[in-house]
Design goal:
The protein contains 14 helices and no strands. The longest helix is centred in the middle third of the chain and has 45 residues. Helix 5 runs antiparallel to helix 8, helix 9 runs antiparallel to helix 10 and helix 9 runs antiparallel to helix 12. The protein has 425 residues and is mostly helical.
Length: 425
């Protein structure tokens, strides 16, 4: 048995003062410097890292970090935009009615303001709306009368035109079998007779669709009455419901969006009228029947930028081919090219540049994306929506840059009194 004084088991000596001071110095941080973990913890962390030092970790390139930052922000924006469109899709009739009401307001508000200088404002608004309705109904009645008056002659011309097209397809270079064309006509007749119930149900659904369209038009007219009469007060009420910190930016953005929307509406209306007049005069000079209805179709199609006019003139070319032959149809195709050049190089740069500052590629992508998302309505509303969002962004950037400390608020610079009562488009 060993004793404490056994030399094989020496008694542990207490640490001396020098060793205590060295241990305390090694484990305590330097005065004023950052605290360091003990050496054992540092060695364990180094082993967990595989023996690498803190500066040996692989670094992500700056370009990749920037791209990742933009990517997740774009994903968030895309999700928000999709959610907004999905919500509007659930109430698309209301959204369409409000949009049409804003279009009518953008067109008729200046006229109502002019008449309100001499008449009471309710009477001025009523005169504008009633006059517009009478004008639209008059144009539609004139088109209907033209079609009804030319119906008998058009039937004969279309039958003769179809016979000419069949003979043309039977000749070189097509050399189609005449029996094939006759078989196509018989198959169409058999299909219609065998699917008569489907055709009838489609017609009935079309009647339901007509009722829906009339409801949307009535709601749009109802909205436009109040937008024209007191749109500024409605905008002021909406702005006053927001938190005080957001009112200034909403005022600046709302004014920029409305200015862009009205400018786009006036510009596209002028472009549509110009295209319709050119097409109507050219078709009348070439002797193509239905010149007035085709001009009206061109007017409506011009509201879809870049692709609307070619589609409408393509219909006119088919009518010219069936009634006047290939030579007149070729002249109508040449008319498509000429009007496209006038619209792309004269009308849009001169008329639309002051309202919509978008690159043609952006316009094309917006139109196609809107058509894919919401059909014809999406193609019509895509460009003013994108242009309005871009103008809001630019206006807010200018407002943030030009607002040094102590400067008047941006709302006052954009025409709003300091009290903030008269706001809105």
């Amino acid at each position: 048995m060993s004793t404490p004084s056994d030399p094989e088991h020496p008694r542990p000596r207490p640490p001396t003062a020098g060793r205590r001071n060295r241990a305390r110095t090694a484990s305590s941080p330097a005065p004023g410097g950052p605290s360091r973990p003990p050496a054992g913890l540092r060695r364990a962390a180094a082993r967990a890292r595989g023996g690498r030092r803190p500066g040996d970790e692989p670094r992500v390139p700056a370009g990749l970090r920037t791209a990742a930052a933009y990517a997740w922000r774009l994903v968030v924006v895309g999700v928000v935009v999709y959610a907004v469109f999905a919500l509007l899709g659930q109430f698309h009739n209301i959204a369409v009615a409000v949009f049409l009401g804003m279009v009518v307001t953008a067109v008729l508000r200046p006229v109502a303001d002019l008449l309100a200088r001499f008449l009471p404002r309710p009477l001025a608004v009523a005169l504008c709306l009633i006059g517009s309705i009478v004008l639209v109904l008059g144009v539609l009645a004139l088109v209907g009368e033209t079609v009804a008056g030319e119906r008998a002659g058009l039937t004969r011309e279309f039958e003769a035109g179809i016979d000419r097209i069949e003979r043309w397809l039977e000749e070189p270079p097509f050399r189609l079998n005449p029996e094939a064309l006759t078989d196509v006509q018989s198959r169409i007749g058999k299909f219609l007779s065998s699917h008569r119930s489907t055709v009838i149900s489609t017609a009935l659904s079309g009647a339901d669709r007509l009722v829906e369209v009339l409801t949307v038009l009535a709601l749009a007219l109802f909205c436009s009455v109040f937008f024209i009469h007191s749109g500024d007060r409605q905008w002021a009420w909406f702005r006053d419901q927001l938190p005080p910190a957001a009112r200034e930016r909403v005022t600046v953005g709302g004014r920029a969006a409305w200015r862009t929307f009205t400018g786009y509406t006036h510009g596209i209306l002028l472009v549509a009228v110009t295209n319709a007049v050119l097409v109507g005069v050219a078709l009348f000079a070439l002797g193509v029947p239905l010149a007035l209805p085709l001009a009206l179709l061109e007017f409506l199609a011009a509201f879809i930028p870049l692709i609307g006019s070619p589609i409408a003139l393509g219909v006119a070319a088919v009518v010219a081919l069936a009634t006047k032959g290939p030579l007149i149809a070729a002249l109508v195709v040449a008319l498509i090219v000429i009007i496209g050049q006038i619209e792309g190089h004269v009308l849009h740069p001169v008329v639309m540049s002051w309202a919509v500052r978008l690159h043609p590629v952006v316009v094309a992508l917006a139109v196609v994306g809107g058509a894919v998302a919401a059909g014809v309505l999406g193609a019509v509303t895509a460009v003013p929506l994108v242009a309005g969002l871009w103008s809001v962004r630019q206006a807010l950037r200018r407002s943030a840059v030009s607002d040094p400390p102590g400067a008047p608020p941006a709302a006052a610079r954009y025409g709003e009194p300091a009290g903030g009562r008269r706001t809105g488009p």
